[in-house]
Amino acid sequence: MTTVFPLFNRVALIGIGLIGSSLALAMKKHGLAGHIAVSTRRQETLDTAQGLNLGDSYSLVAADAVEDADLVVICTPMGAYETVAKSIAAALKPGAVVSDVGSVKTSAIRDLAPHLPAGVHLVPGHPVAGTEHSGPEAGYAELFPGHWTILTPSENTDEQAVAKVKALWEGCGSIVEVMSPGHHDRVLGITSHLPHLIAYTIVDTADQLEDDTKQEVIKFSASGFRDFTRIAASDPVMWRDVFLNNRDAVLEILGRFTEDLTAMQRAIRKGDAAMLIETFERTRAIRRSIIDAKQHIPDVKPDGED
Amino acid sequence: MTTVFPLFNRVALIGIGLIGSSLALAMKKHGLAGHIAVSTRRQETLDTAQGLNLGDSYSLVAADAVEDADLVVICTPMGAYETVAKSIAAALKPGAVVSDVGSVKTSAIRDLAPHLPAGVHLVPGHPVAGTEHSGPEAGYAELFPGHWTILTPSENTDEQAVAKVKALWEGCGSIVEVMSPGHHDRVLGITSHLPHLIAYTIVDTADQLEDDTKQEVIKFSASGFRDFTRIAASDPVMWRDVFLNNRDAVLEILGRFTEDLTAMQRAIRKGDAAMLIETFERTRAIRRSIIDAKQHIPDVKPDGED
Questions:
Q1: Backbone angles phi, psi at B149, to 5 degrees
Q2: Which of A126, A210, A228 to mutate to test the interface with B (most CBs of B within 10 A)?
């Protein structure tokens, strides 16, 4: 497909946190949008976005931002999706593409699709990238290169609309994959949501220790624990919404994890050396296969920050 | 204390894996040892160590290496400690210092102390540093700067012996702290052993998924899961011995963790948004306090690899 730049004449960003601001900067850097209209609920955040020159226009009213927009990207917490959809529906022009950047896709469709008018194309998306920081000041244009973006349109979605959203994320340096929303939620449940839940929990467990032990834990927090604290510093609002919205997939994988952890506990209690070493040798092999997988994907970072 | 170099005329390293080889290279780099005698069980490993010029003499017989040694550092898997202690006891000269680098201290003392002759000074140690790689080829002199080394001598241990081992690790760039072995094992149980156990388990859980999901997990293993795979690639033998030997502290903290994880599961099942966000906000604060703590400790790396 020959790509015409800009891909979209007018793009509206509803919400302007880490992902929204990074997308704005990437679109500007690569000339992907003619006009970027930024909208968010709070004046203070809007002023910060304007101070950072993230867009071309700024409004507290989402409906104003989406007027005449070719593409609308919802970058708010997922808990706000339904409210946002209702507030913009009447202002969307026919043929507009509506997308998002949320970490759970079945719930995104559940909350957005019923409120969007016919003739508007919903292409839910999830750029699998982020840092432990939040807000418009945290964004940067180079967040997406080397990272996947997963799109989860329904099967009868307009192909051109999907292709344009794909081109957008590719233009930002991301590698795009299309899959069903349920499959996305299951896979991310394992690769992202459960690891985050576990990280939050282990940091919380350490936090509830007696003060003298706790000080030492902070002091000697290298050696494994510190990795968990980095993950557990992720945006609380975003992650609350992830667990509320990907409930079933998370509970399923959490159940499996708990069974496996109990088996490990049993092996430790019984001193079952063979079981332990067999598990650890098997998991080391998986690490190797992940490193190998990275090497065969062009442009995907071999390692590094998420 | 005025430091006289070399600190030790003759140092024997029993075992020559990642830590042993890194210690050898650091001692050479900083002139801390007059003569480094390397001993290990397997000819192949010994040849590799010699090829890397890690020592000044090489022997398959530990008792030969420790003859006339001022310092013996046991760098074998902890499961071998008792065998090593029995094999070297008769060859140790009076006043020799015996130390180690193992991750569990109460068991190190349990396995070493009964076999060492009177007049020999046991100063158990644990450099809290490492990578996912193993073996003599993995070592490097700069492993220890910015990292803690914890020493756990008993209260009546010769003070000069403790001071010299402290000076050794400081000479390697490490920051040394002295504490009781039980306290060490509890703190490392939380900061290191439990995180590793959890990482091993989550990778194992993912490994047991159906093949199509598993391929996607490998593919999309950024976003949290990949951090766990790095931890779970740690040396299987070493970690088997950690869990066998720090059993009680690990089971205790694992019990607390499981209770907390069950509380999270319950909150997710019930959609308890308030509980989730309150937990996540609290854990984010802990991350900040760890970053702050790092900044006030001179020479400790603010962040980076363990």
A1: -125, 130
A2: A228
- CATH T-level topology, domain A8-179: Rossmann fold (3.40.50)
Indicate where chain B has its CATH 3.40.50.720 domain(s).
8-179
The beta-carbon neighbor of A200 closest among B195, B228, B283 is B283
Q: Per the CB < 8 Å rule, is A228 touching B195?
A: yes
- Nearest residue to B288 (alpha-carbon basis) of A301, A24, A105, A232: A232
CB contact under 8 A, A287 and B233: yes
Confidence of residue B271 (pLDDT cuts 50, 70, 90): very high
Segments of chain A assigned to CATH 1.10.3660.10: 184-292
Q: Please give the model's pTM, rounded to 2 decimal places.
A: 0.86
Dihedral sign, Cα of residue A22, residue A26, residue A32, residue A33:
positive
Q: Let me know: does B108 contact B79? Beta carbons within 8 Å.
A: no
Check whether domain B184-292 has CATH 1.10.287.3510, yes or no:
no
A–B CB contacts, 8 A cutoff, strictly below: 286
Complex ipTM value: 0.88
Residues, chain A:
306
How far B167 CA sits from the closest chain A CA (Å)?
20
Chain A partners within 8 Å of B222 (Cβ): 128-129, 147-148, 191, 301, 306
Quick one: tokens of A248? Answer: 């079933």
Beta-sheet strands, E only, within A152-229: 175-178
